[in-house]
Specification:
7-stranded mixed sheet; two-stranded antiparallel ribbon; 34% helix; 22% strand
Length: 205
């Protein structure tokens, strides 16, 4: 079952809709899929794209790994099991097919993804393949530990086109000021700051 374990999904929906309205090129991405609530919100927005055919990438290892929940609590037991992975993959691929959006769920940690996909994610369409190494939208909902979030920013920063949006979930759990400062090095500024979600934008101005 696709469900949601956070708040302020309207901010994620708004950011995704802005990317679609501006037809910002590149992939969309979510780090930390869990049961798919955030992915569902993004897929709904991508389904409304008038011309650009987006592919959404979901990155999550599941596998009952220890999880960095915050700067204060680094390792806890989790419920992100193999069974959750199987159910999430089945539910999300069925949903993506129903709304007509390409989806790739990549079962690995964010750090492993960064190593393996530094030159882009290959898309296979219409008889040819191409690597895509830009990210129009990123939903940061994996590790909530400042050094790891900064690693994510440093990976996606050079790969962000103008008009990109970044949405950080549970930002009060880590040093959001440090994250904003690092993101500013790549041209991102604060767009919206809710109680649990923070949206940054990269505008050409």
């Amino acid at each position: 079952m696709i469900d949601r374990d956070s708040l302020e999904y309207e901010l994620l929906a708004q950011a995704a809709a802005q990317v679609v309205a501006a037809q910002v090129p590149g992939l969309t991405c979510e780090i930390g899929v869990r049961t798919g609530g955030g992915t569902q919100v993004i897929l709904d927005a991508l389904a409304r794209s008038p011309s650009y055919a987006y592919t959404h990438i979901g990155i999550d290892p599941w596998g009952a790994l220890n999880y960095d929940t915050s700067d204060a609590t680094l390792y806890v037991d989790t419920i992100y099991t193999d069974r959750m992975r199987r159910q999430a993959c089945a539910d999300l691929y069925a949903y993506a097919n129903a709304v007509g959006v390409d989806l790739q769920l990549i079962v690995m940690t964010d750090a492993e993804f960064f190593r393996r996909f530094a030159t882009g994610v290959y898309l296979y369409r219409h008889g040819h393949s191409e690597p895509v190494n830009q990210y129009a939208l990123v939903h940061f909902d994996g590790p909530h530990y400042t050094p790891l979030v900064l690693d994510e920013v440093r990976f996606f920063g050079p790969r962000a086109p103008w008009g990109a949006r970044w949405v950080f979930d549970d930002y009060p759990w880590y040093d959001a000021a440090a994250v904003q400062a690092e993101a500013a090095q790549y041209g991102f500024t604060l767009d919206t700051q809710g109680r649990v979600k923070m949206v940054l934008r990269r505008d050409n101005r």
